[in-house]
Design brief:
About 55% of the residues lie in helices and about 15% in strands. The protein has about 80 residues and is of the alpha+beta class.
Length: about 80
């Protein structure tokens, strides 16, 4: 029997919006995959960059996220 990794449900605050969440099986899968994912991030991103470069990247990503949120990019409308 296949187990679903995620479930969707109606957002209580905005009934027209659907949300998604990991099921217990999905959470276990994510938990099992996290060490490998973090290792790859370290190998391909953190290790090659200096501390200053990592700080600049974090600042740039935070600014980009803020711009997207301010513009409501990817957010439901209506």
């Amino acid at each position: 029997m296949a187990t679903s990794w995620a479930r969707s449900f109606t957002d209580e605050a905005l009934r027209r919006r659907r949300r998604a969440a990991a099921t217990e099986a999905g959470r276990k899968l994510l938990d099992a995959a996290t060490p490998a994912f973090e290792n790859e991030l370290r190998t391909w991103l953190a290790d090659p960059l200096t501390a200053r470069s990592l700080e600049q990247l974090a600042t740039t990503l935070a600014r980009r996220r803020g711009t997207r949120e301010d513009g409501r990019v990817g957010m439901p409308t209506g």
